Amino acid sequence: MAAYFFFDVREEFDGSKMKEYRDRVGPTVEKFGGRYLAIGGPFDVMEGHWRPVFPVIIEFPTQEAARRWYDSEDYKELKALRLAGSKSDVVLVAGLR
Fold first, then answer.
1. How far is CA 48 from CA 51, 55, 83, 88, 91, in A?
2. What are the DSSP calls for 7-70, one per residue?
3. What is the pTM of this model?
4. How do residues 14-62 score in pLDDT, each as one tens digit?
5. Which residues pair with 39 in a beta bridge?
6. Separation between Cα atoms, residue 72 and residue 35, nearest integer Å
7. Cα 1 to chain centroid, rounded
8. Residue 26, CA distances (Å) to 31, 50, 78 in order
9. 7 with 56: CB under 8 angstroms?
C-alpha cells in the first residue's frame, strides 16, 4: 500500500542550506522508490484553517519504504540541513492501495 509524506516548509531562514538540500534530496527519494507529486506551486484552501506555506507531497510504494528513506543514512545529513535551514511540518500518511 502506498504512503505519502506531506511536508509544509513554513519558514526558510538559511537559503544556502535549503538550496543544498533541494539540490541533493531528489536522488535519495528515488533510491527508496519515492516520487514527488507536488512541490510548492499554487494551491487553494477549500475548507478549514490549515494555511500551508510551501507544501510538498512525496509518494512511496509502501509505508516501510517511506520510513526507510526518512531514517536512512542517505537522508540523515539532508534532514539535518533542512532542520537547520527551515521550520517544517512533516506527516506520513498510509494510502489505500
1. 9, 16, 27, 19, 18
2. EEEEEE--HHHHHHHHHHHHHHHHHTT-EEEEES------SSS---SSEEEEEESSHHHHHHHH
3. 0.93
4. 999 999 999 999 999 999 999 999 999 888 999 999 899 999 999 999 9
5. 56
6. 16
7. 19
8. 9, 26, 11
9. yes
